[in-house]
Write a structure and sequence with these properties.
Blueprint: H1 4-18, H2 20-32, H3 38-62, H4 65-75, H5 79-101, H6 107-116, H7 121-145, H8 147-183
Length: 186
């Protein structure tokens, strides 16, 4: 029978497929609280992120450059720019994927473009994996080191949000009362 920790690691990997950075921070915090062990957390989130990345690559791979060319013409982008992008992806895929993994927001378009460019996985897999390993280790470490701070910040943010909610409700009630008096028949 599987124990609860195994299920936790599996769920962590699935969560990483949907939302990597938050899951990595959460994994680091769970390690710092002694709830989970470091190596299985690391393996789970890296695996989840890599599986999600392959989905984006294959989405690009099943796409057709002609579709993109037609779409860019409709929005007024020069089709030569797409050809240049395809050439750049072919020559620089490993570097682009490595650095995109260390950024926010760039891995998905880079992976789709790599798929559209039909760049073979074996050309960029090492760079891509290296970027993922470095990024995941760094973010888990941040989650581990700042778990207590994150918990305090979360409670402070929650307090501020409750305050804003109360102000909005009071303002809404005041506006409603004022509006009713203004539209009331004398």
């Amino acid at each position: 029978m599987l124990n609860n920790n195994f299920l936790s690691y599996c769920l962590l990997g699935l969560a990483a497929m949907a939302e990597g950075p938050i899951t990595l921070l959460t994994g680091g915090a769970a390690i710092s609280k002694g709830l989970l062990r470091p190596l299985p957390v690391y393996v789970s989130v890296v695996t989840g992120n890599l599986i999600a990345d392959m989905g984006w690559y294959w989405l690009g791979r099943i796409g057709k450059m002609e579709w993109l060319s037609r779409a860019v013409k409709k929005v007024g982008i020069n089709p030569l720019l797409i050809l240049r992008l395809q050439e750049d992806i072919q020559t620089r895929a490993p570097r682009l994927l490595f650095f995109s993994k260390l950024s926010v927001g760039l891995p998905i378009p880079t992976l789709i473009a790599t798929g559209l460019g039909r760049v073979p996985i074996k050309r960029w897999a090492v760079a891509w994996l290296s970027g993922e390993l470095i990024k995941s280790a760094a973010i888990i470490l941040v989650g581990y080191l700042y778990a207590e701070t994150l918990q305090q910040a979360s409670s402070q943010v929650q307090t501020v949000l409750w305050g804003i909610t109360i102000v909005i409700v009071i303002a809404g009630l005041a506006w409603s009362k004022f509006h009713r008096k203004k539209t009331a028949i004398p």
